[in-house]
Design goal:
By secondary structure, the chain is α/β, with parallel strands linked by helices. It is built from eleven helices and 14 strands.
């Protein structure tokens, strides 16, 4: 149990500028003491701008810094397993970005290493720490729509690249584990796990319709949760506009909400329509980071760890593995 959690960040890129990095400084009982980036000049610049006392250009040096109690791995998924295993070997709790890794097999190795070392493993599925999604769970648990029957997940958007453009790492399967489906749908699948429990069975397929890159750009799936709830999902990344809508339908009503962007929950029942509006926090990971810090200081368990984080990877593997095998 720690009195104050002193953090080090491996990979201080864009996600750490606003979404996560400042939250380590602003959370009670937490402090950001070191950052690492392979480009030392960029690491030094980040440290200077964010008031971090130390910077490194070597991950091993940060991990073994005696003043670093816990490590946040904010690199692309291709290096998640490597760094988590190093942290486990050093006896340091580790908080890893989502998706947890490129595959469920890598996730299993990470879980095993941390379990054997006796260190906690957390995953940055930070929507579990947002009031917006906690309200949806409150409505479900309170019986607002009665017994849940089925859920639908729909997300599509225009292609982000043009033919011949250099691809971002999110569209490089060797770095990300797939395409935008892996990057974005992992959030939706994890939040459905949080709201409705684990998915027991998943089937579906992936394809590439636009031909702009090698990764999948469309995925469809059907699901059955352990509770018996059924579900369907479609993710298309070469469509004409942005759509992001999830619907949970029960015997007495439905709940509509987005995974990204729209902070409005719509509850529809026979009594009418009610909406709940939430303001997005400035540092969107701060709620979950606060829960992780509380756990490391002897408080209750946080809602997103390795055993929950792997479940999104298991489902995604089932939907895209045949595409990559072929």
């Amino acid at each position: 149990m720690l009195d104050k959690v002193r953090w080090g960040i491996i990979g201080c890129g864009n996600v750490t500028e606003v979404k996560s990095g400042p939250a380590f400084q602003k959370t009670e009982g937490s402090e950001l003491v070191a950052v690492m980036r392979r480009n030392g000049e960029l690491a030094a610049d980040y440290a200077a701008r964010h008031g971090v006392p130390k910077w490194y250009d070597n991950a091993d040096d940060l991990i073994h810094d005696p003043e670093v109690d816990a490590v946040y791995v904010a690199t692309p998924p291709s290096s998640h397993m490597e760094y988590v295993l190093q942290c486990a070997a050093a006896g340091k709790p580790v908080y890893v970005e989502k998706p947890m890794a490129r595959s469920s097999a890598e996730c299993e190795a990470m879980i095993a290493a941390c379990r054997e070392a006796g260190v906690p493993l957390f995953v940055a599925y930070y929507r579990r720490g947002l009031d917006y999604f906690r309200k949806i769970k409150e409505l479900l648990d309170g019986g607002a729509i009665g017994r849940v029957c089925f859920v639908s997940m729909k997300q599509y958007q225009p292609a982000r690249v043009n033919e011949g453009e250099q691809l971002p790492w999110r569209l490089n399967p060797e770095e990300s584990g797939g395409g935008l489906f892996v990057d974005l749908a992992s959030h939706t699948l994890d939040i459905m796990d949080y709201l409705l429990g684990p998915i027991a069975e998943a089937a579906g397929g992936a394809g590439n319709q636009a031909g702009l890159y090698e990764a999948e750009d469309i995925v469809t799936g059907s699901f059955e949760f352990q509770s018996g709830v059924r579900g369907v999902g479609v993710w298309c990344f070469s469509a004409y506009k942005h759509v992001d809508v999830n619907e949970i339908v029960g015997e007495k009503g439905s709940i509509l909400f987005d995974t990204f962007g729209n902070e409005i929950i719509t509850l529809e029942t026979a009594a009418g329509t009610e909406q709940f509006t939430f303001e997005k926090p400035p540092h969107i990971q701060q709620g979950l980071i606060g829960m992780i810090v509380d756990e490391l200081r002897g408080g209750p368990a946080s809602p997103s760890d390795g055993t929950s984080g792997i479940r999104a990877n298991v489902v995604m593997d089932k939907l895209i593995e045949s595409y990559y095998q072929s």
